[in-house]
Structure formats: structure tokens, C-alpha cells
Design brief:
InterPro entries: WH_DNA-bd_sf. This protein is of the alpha+beta class. It has a domain of 122 residues: Winged helix-like DNA-binding domain superfamily/Winged helix DNA-binding domain (Arc Repressor Mutant, subunit A, Orthogonal Bundle). It is built from five helices and seven strands. The strands form two sheets. A five-stranded mixed beta sheet has the order 1-7-3-5-4. Strands 2-6 form a two-stranded antiparallel ribbon.
């Protein structure tokens, strides 16, 4: 599995390194290892890579690489997890080879529990180089332009020249206490 980790990149918001599980679900997960070991392994792959809204978008070939098993084994593991209510699967595109895997929020979660139900709309995306049509050019492309964004609670800091100060006459006896500038005609 080590050789594939360099070919697969995860793009997700930084969550830290913690994933939480509910104790009863954790014990059921341990039993799943005995009854369906590949499904339990796939559950670890999905939970280990999911975004903060409990979802991961990945292709079946990528899941095959991460698990080191056949396509049919991955599909059987997905079916087991879906049938036993560990995950929900949402197909992306007509082919069905890339899906969003949404982890049951009563099993495991990474973010705040009050935002979990947004998992259908936000997911980490797992992409491998060999799925890209321009895979030979990926490392030679110039970097993208950075578009700054604000996170909740942040405020924009003004930059640049800014606007000139307003030109409004002062009220008598309320002149601004500005430094005096010597002009040529003084």
C-alpha cells in the first residue's frame, strides 16, 4: 500500500488528525472485522480519509489501490457497509465508478456534531494521478492563482493604497489636529 500513497492525493479542509467513534459503534466495528474483514478495512479507509462533514468522494479503482484488493471485493465491501447502515452511497455521474460515501454520523465523525447532516453537500475528494488525462503534466503546471477566502469569525484586512480621505471643510473650532506641512508658498 505504501507505493500507492504517493499517487493518491486527498484534498480536504484541515481537520486535524482525530476521528471520533461512538463506543457501541466501535464495538460493532470490531465484530465487523470478524464477519466481513474487507468491509471493516474499507470502513477504515473511508473514515481515515473523510472530510469534516463525514463524506468522501472516491472512485472504485482508488479504493482498490488503497485496500490492495480486486474491484469485486471493493464492491462487495461497499454493499455490506451500505446494507448494514455503516455508510450511504451517492453516485456521481452516470458510470457509477465514482461515488460519495457518507459515513453514518452515529458511527464516526471528525467535525462538530451539529453540522453533520450537511454531509450530502460537502466531501473530501480522493483523486489518483492515473485517473487524470493530463497525468504526465501534473508536476510541470504553473501554480494556480491564489484566491483568498475568509473563514468564519475572520475579518478582511484592508490592503493597498485605499481611498483618499474625504475633503470636507472642518467646522470652526473643530479643526483636525493634523501635522503641519510646509508648502512652497509659506
Amino acid at each position: 500500500m505504501q507505493k500507492h500513497s504517493r499517487q493518491i492525493g486527498l484534498t480536504t479542509a484541515p481537520n486535524g488528525t482525530w476521528v471520533q467513534t461512538e463506543r457501541a459503534a466501535h464495538e460493532r466495528w470490531a465484530k465487523l472485522i470478524g464477519s466481513h474483514p474487507k468491509a471493516a478495512a474499507l470502513m477504515h479507509v473511508i473514515v481515515g480519509n473523510m472530510g469534516r462533514h463525514n463524506a468522501l468522494v472516491a472512485s472504485i479503482p482508488n479504493l482498490q489501490k488503497l485496500m490492495g484488493c480486486s474491484r469485486n471485493t471493493v464492491i462487495r465491501a461497499i454493499t455490506t457497509l451500505k446494507d448494514q447502515n455503516w455508510i450511504e452511497v451517492r453516485q456521481i455521474g452516470a458510470a457509477g465508478t465514482t461515488n460519495a460515501y457518507i459515513v453514518n454520523d452515529r458511527v464516526a465523525w471528525t467535525g462538530k456534531r451539529d453540522g453533520i447532516r450537511y454531509s450530502l453537500f460537502s466531501a473530501a475528494v480522493l483523486v489518483s494521478d492515473d485517473e487524470q488525462p493530463d497525468k504526465d503534466e501534473i508536476n510541470t503546471r504553473p501554480p494556480l492563482e491564489r484566491v483568498p477566502s475568509l473563514y468564519p469569525g475572520e475579518k478582511q484586512l484592508p490592503i493597498g493604497e485605499g481611498l483618499p480621505p474625504p475633503s470636507q471643510p472642518s467646522f470652526e473650532a473643530m479643526e483636525h489636529d493634523l501635522p503641519y506641512t510646509l508648502r512652497d508658498d509659506d
